[in-house]
Amino acid sequence: MNPLASPKCASRVLMALAAISGIIFAAGCGSSSSTSTTNPGGFSDSSLTGTYVISISGTDVNTTTNEVVPFAIVGTITADGKGGLTGTIDINDPYNIGVKLGQSVSSSSGYQVGQDGRGTGTLVTPVGNFNLDFVLTSSNHGLISRFDDNGNDIGTGSGTIDMQTSPTPTPTGSFAFSLSGVDSGGNSLGTVGAFTINSTSIAGTEDFNDDATSGPGYTGLTLTGQLVASTSGPGTAQFNTPVVSTSLDSLNFDVWVIDSTHLKFIETDTAGPYLSGDAFTQMTSLSAGQLVFVLSGMDGTQEPVVAGGYATVTDANGDLSNGVEDYNDNGTVGLGKPFSTSAATCVASTGRCQLTLNGFSNGTSEPFTFAVYPSSGGGGLALEIDSFGLLQGASYSQSATAFTPSGGYGLNLTGVNNLNPNLEAGAWGEVDDIAQFNAGSTASPAVNMTGTLDENDIGDLAPTSSLNGTYTPDTNGDGRGSITAPTTGTFKTLLGGFTLQYYVVDSSTVVFIDVDSTALDGGAAQVAVGTFEAQSSSSSAAAVPMVRPMVRPHAALQRK
């Protein structure tokens, strides 16, 4: 046990800024699949067959202090198509059960999948059991959350399930990466960069933002180290940089290969920091044309903030024009804010771009500076590198301005709200939603999305709520739109529904931010990000790493 030194340290957490699985990193991550085809036959247990890389990050509760603390899980599970599971996972839960590597998932684990693709499961390990709630978008890919409110085991988080290529390839070439979590003191930490693999050695560039401390000594650093792949389990990696904070200068990881374009990382240092995230095939510049983005983190006063929008890449330096930003800063919402860049630079030899955004806001307007590492898909992995806060996320090259208005979609939302009755008044707690819905006509105000949503608002589970909402695209066809969805039925979410701003990546993939300044039933706000992806018979949607919001320090959870 490594209890937190104080409540302040307990919850300065980037709540899994992953794709996604996290949920999304809005990350120009690209797609390794062909166009999706619909799945009219629905899903069943047999839809989950084979070996998958599973990744979840979020928060759980320290069993001694009741403080809400960060955790991450990465590993492989093998599903037999009949409800049985085995595998091996790494668990990084530093302020609760500790850093536990190579934990076996026993044969007493299991899962079940419904016809709509929503499923549940349990991972049984020597250090505890983890209940899961997920939605499959295909037999290759799904969105997942932790769904625990069981006595001393209370936890929530979001992530992804991705089928692992067999045989597992040895990664080669150049990769851009984005990792998030906390430093050894429990403060929010983000890092982005890129490296090229030469045999087992790596060389590249890395940037850090440690609790809104960045700039000289933290940015544009020379990265060296090694990455040793494995075909029978996780590989290992070490990142070495001359960062001014010596606790960050040498970081060790387990590395799980999904395919030749996508790697998952989880830190193995028992004394911290505690990071996890993704790496994708690197590009040397941002692709010209329109991109969409999602960012998440904290503002200059350590309040949670998310931002999303679109902009046009005008040149090889990464300059942006015609930008439109939406943001939710601690429940204060701004929509349709114009922005652009000045003096952007992209260095092809390192694959690093640096952008200063004019007119951008995280609740206040400053000349925000970001390091961006272009990755497959035409967008890039981004990190704020100034002293005005800590935003991390990604952008996608936009290939469509509308998603297909028929068929099923899987949805994952992750964020924070200040409504949880188990926390002190006004404290932010993590919320994670898994949903499946069918999209219909774009007519508004008619309901055009219907389905089912499951929610874990840490310490409060709300399964099988009816999801009935309306999506309304912008009239100018820019791929941006809004969603209003109250939840009804026997179970209801704590918020009573949600209001989203969405951004179309391609015809089957959409990213969004939550812009609820007050709950539908009054008195609360929700700051969150997410994605929804078309369900298909085989191929997966564009890879989406997870963007996660920040949790402000708060008191211990009050157990029921």
Which secondary structure elements does this structure contain, and how are they paired or packed?
Layout: H1 7-10, E1 13-14, E2 49-61, E3 68-80, E4 84-93, E5 98-113, E6 118-125, E7 128-136, E8 141-150, E9 153-163, E10 173-182, E11 188-198, E12 201-210, E13 221-228, E14 235-240, E15 250-259, E16 262-267, E17 274-281, E18 289-298, E19 304-313, E20 320-329, E21 332-347, E22 352-358, E23 368-374, E24 380-384, E25 390-397, E26 407-417, E27 429-439, E28 449-457, E29 460-473, E30 480-488, E31 497-506, E32 509-516, E33 526-534, E34 550-551
Antiparallel strand pairs: 1-34, 2-3, 2-9, 3-4, 4-5, 5-6, 6-7, 7-8, 8-9, 10-11, 10-17, 11-12, 12-13, 13-14, 14-15, 15-16, 16-17, 18-19, 18-25, 19-20, 20-21, 21-22, 22-23, 23-24, 24-25, 26-27, 26-33, 27-28, 28-29, 29-30, 30-31, 31-32, 32-33
Describe this structure in words.
Among the domains are: 157 residues, Porin; 145 residues, Porin, CATH 2.40.160. A hairpin with a 5-residue loop joins strand 10 and strand 11. It is 1% helix and 57% strand. The N terminus is likely disordered. The longest helix is centred in the N-terminal third of the chain and has 4 residues. The strands form 5 sheets. An 8-stranded antiparallel beta barrel has the order 2-3-4-5-6-7-8-9. The protein has an 8-stranded antiparallel beta barrel with strand order 10-11-12-13-14-15-16-17. The chain is an all-beta fold. The two termini are 23 Å apart. The radius of gyration is 21 Å and the shape is globular.
